Amino acid sequence: MNNKAAVGSAIALIDGNNFYASCEAVVDPAVRGRPLVVLSNNDGCIVSRSAEARALGIAMGTPYFQARAELERHGVVVRSSNYALYADMSERLMASLEPWVEALEVYSIDEAFGQLRRPKGEALLDWAQQLRQDVLRQLGLPVAVGIGPSKVLAKLANRLAKRSPAGAPPGGGGGVFDLGAVDDPDSWLAALPVADVWGIGRQLGEWCRRRGVADAKALRDMPTGELRRKCGVVGVRLQQELRGIACLPLELAPAPKRETCVSRSFSKPVKELEQLREAIASYVSRAAEKLRHQRQRAGMLTVFVRSSPFNGTSLYRHAITVELPLPSNDTAVLLAAALPLAKQLLRPHKPLQKAGVLMQALEPETQLQHHLFAPLPAEEQQRREALMAAVDGLNRRYGQGTLRWAACGLKPAWAMRRERLSGAATTCIHAIPTAHAEGQEPARFKRSAAAARRDRGG
């Protein structure tokens, strides 16, 4: 690997720090600087921690009921997962990154790879710091930036960016690190465990350790033939990436999904048919929205349920798959296919803990093969597509669930428990905070939803 910054292409990995916790601090400035954790579905386990919570030694994945006393003792702020907020902040983050790079690959909800040019003989630390400051100014989100000549090295540089203190020479510090500009990259790679290398799972990591390959440098330098025999061409590409030879191009457009799943655990066991129908309807409705967003139609759908493995009785699992006459992303069509399955899935004396729907046999929205025994006139198809677009548009503007299907229920008792949910100020107009001028009557400064719509041209 060349140890001098040279003219050419560089890859940057931009990663949101403690993303869920940071999003909570954006919409609630009162929690900034305080230890904060975010819980998983049904307020089960800790899935995100602020830097202050990490410093207290609070472990990721700890069940909330086990950590409750410790969290209260330290005054830790606890929030339920606010997926609408996180998804919206993710879209804003990716949009803010696009002007900074030549090409952008959205890798996950809080990570993106960017491709850019490296000036001859120069590091990209100033560029990375300016990017961080711009994102923080626009969105209030802290990010770390790792830079290298390949994706794998950019990923490792991002880890170093999070570990290196501000002012750490020579690759960066304070949230940035440029592996392509350090004089001795070997010492940095030797400090990173092999398990930290992107693409090394638990089993492969154990295989490496048994052969004395304990860090990223050792993996880079091990015999290629041995790695090829274990991992094939995938392992060889990984090793080449560690050597600074880019083998993994940026994926500028996400690959079409082969399946789309929506599933949730219930806040309390479901025993009644009507409750199960409401749950299935809710999950089908959400899955249909995803299909339309992905511009796909489903040719088959599967509804599945299971009981709790911890209730002292035998575990019950069941799933039923149905094929649609015509592939569809119309919520009404999918509900008509899925709801009759509820009666077949429910069993007496088997309270259900979880249910879900799986959309399968996906195909592009632009192709629809009609057949003789399932007529769908063009006018009817256009009318249904316009209706679905209107429903999706209203829900995007005024918040998820503004318009919902009656089969989903209004206040279902089985719904996911989120007792510490924050507001949806970025996705729901009614959750936008109201500011009052000091010394004035608050009523004079409250704005109705109708007034807000007029101001926005709605």
Describe the structure.
The protein has 458 residues and is of the alpha+beta class. It has two domains: 1-183, Reverse transcriptase/Diguanylate cyclase domain (Alpha-Beta Plaits); 260-408, Dna Ligase, domain 1 (2-Layer Sandwich). Helices cover 37% and strands 20% of the residues. The chain has 16 helices and twelve strands. Helix 4 (83-97) crosses helix 5. The N and C termini lie far apart (56 Å). The model is unreliable at 1-6 and 443-458 (pLDDT under 50).
**Gross morphology:** globular
Major sheet: arrangement of strands: 5-6-1-7-8
| CATH architecture identity of the largest domain | 2-Layer Sandwich
Radius of gyration: 25 Å
Assign the CATH class of the largest domain: Alpha Beta
The number of strands is 12
Proportion of residues in β-strands: 15-25%
Structural class: alpha+beta
CATH evolutionary superfamily of the largest domain? Reverse transcriptase/Diguanylate cyclase domain
Overall pLDDT score: 86
CA-to-CA gap between the ends? 56 Å
Number of domains: 2
Largest sheet: 5 strands, mixed
Low-pLDDT runs of 5+ residues are 1-6, 443-458
Helix content: 25-40%
Query: Helix and strand string, N-terminal first?
Result: EHEEHHEHEEHEHEHHHHHEHEEHHEHH
- Tell me the CATH topology of the largest domain: Alpha-Beta Plaits
Please count the helical segments.
Answer: 16
